[in-house]
Design goal:
Largest sheet: 5 strands, parallel
Number of helices: 9
CATH architecture: 3-Layer(aba) Sandwich
Strand order of the largest sheet: 2-3-1-4-8
Distance between the termini: 15 Å
Bound molecules: BIS(adenosine)-5'-pentaphosphate, zinc ion
Number of domains: 1
CATH class: Alpha Beta
Order of helices and strands: EHEHHHEHEHEEEHHEH
Length: 217
């Protein structure tokens, strides 16, 4: 299956993607995690992406599309993938369609996670992520690690993301409404969108997501 996960910052895309990718046996491809890995390794791509990310802006398409295509072209993604955070504007959505068409492939579903803005703010304020792998995501109150400040998955140190401070979060929400939301209509016109509520326990949301995708959690 080839799936796109869409929703505002803090909706729980990364959290759900970890479970969905496991259930569906497809890789979780997060452009945010790819950028953060490049930043921690100090690559030129990471250096370029960091200034945009810290300001809450999108990294330019000229950088992002090539990086996403490289990742989708890897062997483990041949049978399908779960995209998280890509595409994020109409240009990227059109580029993805063209990329898949060129390979005789298409998307199967777009899962839209709906969550009110006050909940987003609470989720982001308490988010803690792993220094070793930013796809290991916790919450100081709602999704606590077994030992405070320590990643359950790999033992790495947990910290607060640089772009999770209040001003940047507000900017990211603005960018989401202006640039990312229009892709939902773009995909709705292709009959691909299922919208589910992302409120409730993590496992409840996973169940809703799996049933929207036509499977069992
Ligand atoms: P990215 O990393 O994609 O961030 P985002 O879209 O803003 O999404 P988040 O990671 O903030 O939230 P999420 O929905 O994954 O929520 P999570 O599961 O962590 O992008 C960051 C930046 O990179 C962008 O601003 C941009 O600069 C750049 N970028 C990335 N992709 C790009 C692209 N395609 N083009 C251009 N630029 C790009 O959950 C949030 C918190 O809530 C966690 O603490 C979690 O434990 C908790 N939580 C989750 N589910 C629940 C629940 N059900 N109940 C209670 N708490 C919950
Ligand atoms: Zn970890």
């Amino acid at each position: 299956m080839r799936i796109v996960l869409v929703g505002p910052p803090g909706a729980g895309k990364g959290t759900q993607a970890a479970y969905l990718a496991k259930n569906l046996a497809i890789p979780h491809i997060s452009t945010g995690d790819l950028f953060r890995a490049n930043i921690s390794q100090g690559t030129p791509l990471g250096v370029e992406a960091k200034s945009y990310m810290d300001a809450g802006n999108l990294v330019p398409d000229s950088v992002t599309i090539g990086m996403a295509e490289d990742r989708m072209g890897q062997a483990d993604a041949a049978e399908g993938f779960l995209l998280d955070g890509f595409p994020r504007n109409l240009g990227q959505a059109e580029a993805l369609d063209a990329y898949l068409q060129g390979k005789g492939l298409k998307l199967d579903a777009v899962l839209d996670l709906e969550v009110p803005e006050d909940e987003v703010v609470k989720r982001i304020a308490g988010r803690r992520i792993c220094r070793k792998d930013s796809s290991h995501v916790f919450h100081a109150e709602y999704n606590k690690p077994a030992a405070e400040g320590v990643c359950d998955v790999c033992g790495g140190e947990l910290y607060q993301r640089e772009d999770d401070h209040e001003d940047t979060v507000r900017k990211r929400l603005e960018v989401y409404h202006a640039e990312t939301e229009p892709i939902i209509d773009f995909y709705r016109a292709q009959g691909l969108v299922s919208t589910i509520s992302a409120l409730g326990k993590v496992a409840e949301v996973t169940e809703r997501a799996m049933s929207a995708l036509g499977g069992d959690a």
